[in-house]
Amino acid sequence: MVGFNDAMIPATPGRVPTGVRIGYAVGSFCTANFAAIPGLLLLIYMTNVLAVDPLLAGVVVFLPKAWDLIANTLIGQWSDRTVSRWGPRRPWMLAGTAVLPISFALMFIGPPLKGVPAAIFVGLVFLVAATGYALYEVPYKAMPAEMTHDYHERTALLQWRMVFIAIAIAMSGVLAPMLAGDTIEGYRLMGIVFAVILLVAMIGSFFGTANAPYTGQQDSEGSLRVQLAAARESKPFLWLLGLCSAQTLAAGVMLAGAPYFAAYTVGDPKATTTLFAALVGPMLITMPLWVWLARVLDKRGAMILSGLLFMSGAILALASPLLGPIYAHLCIVVVGVGYAGLQLLQFSMLADVIAYDGQVSGKRRGGVFTGLWTAVESAVAAFGATIYGAVLSIGGFLESDPANPVVQPDSAVTAVLIGLTVIPALIILSGVLMTLKYDLSADKLAPAVT
Predict the structure, then answer these.
(1) Which residues cross the membrane (predicted)?
(2) What is the span of the domain harbouring residue 181?
């Protein structure tokens, strides 16, 4: 026994009930908003509101996520070994619910500080928030692999999640910048509103997964060192981690650069909202298409296609200063179509890797796999802001606050554009090349689950 009570319904490989799919997907309002809002607004909040140097601001965004490399791995192991009447995953999700919403609000509280002191305050609170997020996210991502053995059912299960992610990203990219504006009061209001959204989503997913099917036949591995060794020895996991890290890094760079692109390339700071609409619109529309393509091309082929679309949109956006705002938005639509596929396929393929390892090894190591995954994902996404901040610094971007606006030099405006286009395109290309080495197909997985 692994600690599940009667509420955890034993399942045979097959369809996950619709109610559970929705209950699980609700949690994406937490995961997507927390992943998107700091990546989108925290850098520009510090450089343009709290007068923090762009390079320092980029480091502040990254360091708390570097802590995840330790915290997430430990949380993954602990959740694998947890025995409770709520199962091994849900108690940790509830713990994250107690920490993340409050610390998120405090991140954007607008302290009466500027420069380095403001950066230290934001960094410390972000560290607490990142820890709360890890408590929730690591077990949350481990659950799909334990709900069904079916290779394609995991994609269908996560299709619901991706719809909620698209809605959440729309909230992050449209509502959050609209509330924040460019004032401390606006950022404070935004932080409180989204803290409430996080709280409701986290509680909703906790209760929504109470009756989730469970295919767990594995026993948890005893030693963290042994589990980490198992992760290192899993070739599919390592290749997937590498290619998805490249994708996440590219997205992190573009996310951090979006408000700057809107303000200094498109020429309208409010265009952040319409650019995000262009990004997430395809996610709402193309999810059934990507599910179909994953069946026709297998997941690896669909992943390659989605990466190439993302890269093409980024490169095309390089001509935005010449061709205007409408063209810039159309380029982001192309990026959005590719991003939709990447988001769906990453999590579906991770669930495949966890299920494959569990069936081959007979051990429950999903928590450690997702712990490592989430730690690396969080760190590289945040490192995207560091990269973009460094590009701005090299370009001579000047920090400011609303009371003391500045005119940016031409070199800084050029850096804004290069950071959003050429750099993400090169990074995503490396991910496409790594995808060619990933070989966990439906045919390879099938013998392990029969």
Answers:
(1) 22-45, 51-71, 92-110, 116-136, 157-180, 192-216, 237-262, 274-294, 301-320, 326-345, 366-391, 411-436
(2) 19-213
pTM over the 0.85 mark: no
Q: Of 213, 236, 271, which closes a domain?
A: 213
Identify whether 4 is part of a domain.
no
The residue with tokens 């955890």 is: 8
- Segment 244-294, tens digit of pLDDT: 999 999 998 998 898 999 999 999 888 888 888 888 778 778 888 988 998
Tokens of 339: 């991003």
What's the CATH code of the domain at 130?
1.20.1250.20
The answer to whether position 356 is within a domain reads yes
Kindly report, residue by residue over 150-198, the tens digit of the pLDDT: 656 666 666 677 778 778 877 887 889 889 988 899 999 999 999 999 9
Token pair, residue 30, equals 């937490």
CA atoms within a 13 Å half-sphere pointing along the CA-CB vector of 170 = 14
